[in-house]
Amino acid sequence: MTFSEYLDYWLDNHSKSNTAPRTHENYHYMITQHIKPILGHIKISKLQSSHLQEYYAQKLSGGKLDGNGLSAQSVKHHHRLISKALKDAMRWEFIIRNVAAVITPPKTKKVEMQTWDNEQVKAFLEAAKSSPYFPIYFTAINTGMRRGEVLGVRWQDIDFDNKVIYVRQSLQEVKKVGLTFKEPKSGKSRSITVTPTFTKEMKKVYKQQLENKLLFGQAYHDLDLVFAQKNGKPIQPTEMARNYLMVVESCGLPYIRFHDLRHTHATLLLQQGVHPKVVSERLGHSTIGITMDTYTHV
Questions:
Q1: What is the pLDDT of residues 251-289, one digit of tens each?
Q2: Which domain holds residue 161?
Q3: What is the H or E stretch that residue 242 is in?
Q4: In a domain, 266, yes or no
């Protein structure tokens, strides 16, 4: 069996049923576009550590379609995928050893995190007030939830009396499938306490949604989503991303990604003296160590 044939087998018999659709899609892309063209012809039993080391060096120097090299982080993802696939091959007795286990992947540089300060957050929210996505931006900044988590939150997930929002599902976009819902990244739900200002803002959203339901009648797609299109269907992340960029440019702030609103939330909390354990739980990190490592600059 060639490495290419094995990777096809692994994708069909393991990845498809054991990973999230978006993750499987990413694995499929890495394997078909990068790994198979270079390593696919080698018999899996003849694959050597030196083959992988040469592959990583090649990708770092010119792995992109335009001839430029891939980042060390991207090559690290390739290494993790290859190592995982070979570990499973050992388990299924296709091979007797995992040649990726003895290789050290490329060292990645820690990129300085981009966040806004309190005044910049106020300026952004002020500029975003006329945007139909304002409640989404407001939620991301005030809860530290990931984009998919914000877009996946339902009315049943908000406890107005106790001012708590529960993160139980996440919206994701998958090619050939479209928008789907999955478990949060950590695989388990979490709760986030919110302010009276936040619940007041959500009640405005609820009132507007009731008007939309009356307007659309039977044509309204009621998925219980807090943030939805006027007809109740899920928000298109790409549409929102365009609007987000437009708002940031309109107020002259340094550009940060939508995901950096999550980092901004955590940074502001830590600067105010909130205990890292509390911040870790709000963000849904599996350990406080991840939070401490991510926000060492604070």
A1: 999 999 999 999 999 999 999 999 999 999 999 998 899
A2: 118-294
A3: helix 237-250
A4: yes
Q: For residue 223, what are the contacts with CB-CB under 8 A and spacing of at least 6?
A: 154, 232, 233, 234
Residues in the chain: 298
24 CB contacts (<8 Å, ≥6 apart)?
11, 15, 16
- Structurally, the chain folds into a number of domains equal to 2
- Domain identity same for 91 and 124: no
Residue 46: exposure state from Cβ atoms within 10 A (0-12, 13-18, ≥19): exposed
pLDDT tens figures, 214-253: 999 999 999 999 999 999 999 999 999 999 999 999 999 9
Cite the DSSP H helix spans in 19-146: 21-30, 36-39, 49-62, 72-91, 118-128, 134-143
Q: Are residues 169 and 260 in the same domain?
A: yes
Please tell me what DSSP assigns to residue 69. Answer: P
The amino acid at residue 169 is: Q
Residues 276 and 189 in one domain: yes
pTM above threshold 0.90: no
